[in-house]
Design goal:
The chain is mostly beta strands and about 80 residues long. The protein contains no helices and nine strands.
Amino acid sequence: MQLEILTPEKKIFEGEVTIVTFPGASGSFQVMDNHAPLISLLQEGVVEYKGREGTARVGILGGVVEVLQNKVIVLATGIAA
């Protein structure tokens, strides 16, 4: 599936991944290939994703995620330092 992580300032990541873990407002959750459509609030925490190059992590300050037709878009309010 395709993952994009965006902030108001720039695109943080774009690429193919197999699994993504999010810091949801009601707790951590994962998305895999062919996941049902979803929109969720994100709280401050770490977005972890696995792709061809291995596992990577991005700290976010919060935001929103949309999952639709194997495309995952994260609109983060900012990146944690």
